[in-house]
Amino acid sequence: MATIERIAIPLPTGFDPRKHSAGLLKLICDRHGDGWEIDNIDLGASRATASRQAAITQVSASESERESFDVRLARGTRPTDGDRMAAKLEDQYPGHVMSRFDVHLGLATLTRMDAPTIRCRGAVAQALGVKPWEVRCRPRADGGFDLGLPNRYMPSRHDGKLDEVATAVVGRPGWYVTVDPAALTASLIPSEPPTFPALIPYPLADLSTTDRDRLMFGRRLPAAGARLGSVAEIDWKAQAFALVAGLPGSGKSVTLNAIIAGSLASGSELCVIDLPAKSLDFAWCKDMVRPGGWGCDNAEAAVTALALVYAEGERRARVLAAEGVVNWLELPQERQFAPILVVVDEVTALLVPRRVPAGIPRDHPLKVEVDQENIPKAALDRFINKIVAELRFVGIRLVLSSQVANNSTGIGPSLKAKIGHKILVGSNPSRQARTQAFNDETSVPHVPPTIRADCDAAKGSGCAELEGTAPYVFKSFYAASDDYRAALLRLGVPTTGQPEPTARQIAQHTDSLRVDEALLAPRGARRGADADPDGEPVTDRNGRPLRGIAAANARSSRLQNRS
């Protein structure tokens, strides 16, 4: 069915468009009726072409029986008449909607649509800010919808709105959208919400091929429509330090064990720092640490284990300086160092100093005892900060584990800013916990509500903000400690008969940290600042005790007199 009539008119000799066009148009209208317009004049061929649009909206009865048919629009129909024409035509042909409206061609198309398709088309049109007939929509066999998008579609502006249509308007959580921006097509596809299985076994069979520099520790949340997510991994080349945070029972130890197993399998040395009571989580790999790398028996052992790592880092730095390179990865492959993974668990208990109630004298046994306990904590804090600040280029990798990451728990802003990989284990952490753990909490996705509501799926899940990749939701791999150990022994991971620092090493690195034992004795039984070398009080001529410099001078004078 033609919507525009066209005719060709021969031109007489000497025709001048500037003088004769109006007369030509009048001649055409006199012969053929009103509504004609001259489209073009070809003087070379001595011919003019004219056209006109139908005077009224026309549709044949036979066409109205089909699924889709065209109608000719009346002459004078304007672009702003779309809503009026849609209402008029859709009322005239129930079950059909206007799916095309082109006033320039004088054409509209009516298409039969069911109610869900009409609802989808309308929701998409509203989301994109266009008229419904600018969106093509047809149902899919799986219950979803295929779309044709208008030219004004922009991914950055409209993808989020299309997701909302899919999951909250025409579908439900789990539905997803695929878009081809170049072709201006999209599909709303039904699916169940992505989730995790109750358990994701660690792929122990793949330990032998573990990448030294890309450490897998779990799986990401599957993409919409997928059953299994990609591997969650730490890129040690992008950054050498990581933070694993999470409340008790959230699964931090499971995550740490996966990190330890992968590191040992790929040739890394291991150093573990922990409280004696908590070190049971890592007892399975105690004899797999580097000699002296088990810093879990007491505070002195912890300080010594870190001191040995720091000393090795300094040695490596000297080697790099001699080789004229600034990073261990620049050395030839056969001469590169074995990475050292340092795991510091329970950072808060290890680093945060005890407080002494106000009013207790400086030389009171309780104050001295607390000072003795706090000195190793300060030493640990010092070594951790020095390793992070100075030894990132020698192959030392550090993982700090803490329930909360803030200044009062041993991980202050300065230290946190130097740590690139941040993992928060737990399916429903508070906003404060997320803010303290991540650099930009707003950019890190949350564990979906459907997973949080499923206890099995939620266990071991969390969020990761890692260098070299966009933030994501993950679930840690799991394997029993015995299975990790057996698999690593089969690979030939070396063991040591001396995991703890030796007494000599401890003495070498911690003697300067000890408080004089005399200060720990009962106050009345020890020699204080007001006693001479024989224990006699040092007083002035009036019998009043002397302290500080005065007491020191008096003792010196007494010794000179005795000599």
From TrEMBL:
A single GO molecular function term of this UniProt record: DNA binding
Lineage, uppermost ranks: Bacteria, Bacillati, Actinomycetota, Actinomycetes, Nakamurellales
Keyword field: Cell cycle, Cell division
Stored Pfam families: FtsK_SpoIIIE
Gene3D superfamilies associated with the record: P-loop containing nucleotide triphosphate hydrolases
Biased composition (Polar residues): 554-563
Entry's Gene Ontology BP terms: cell division
Organism: Nakamurella multipartita (strain ATCC 700099 / DSM 44233 / CIP 104796 / JCM 9543 / NBRC 105858 / Y-104) (Microsphaera multipartita)
Name of this chain's protein: Cell division FtsK/SpoIIIE
Positions of the UniProt region annotated as Disordered: 522-563
Domain of life, per lineage: Bacteria
Domain AAA+ ATPase: 238-430
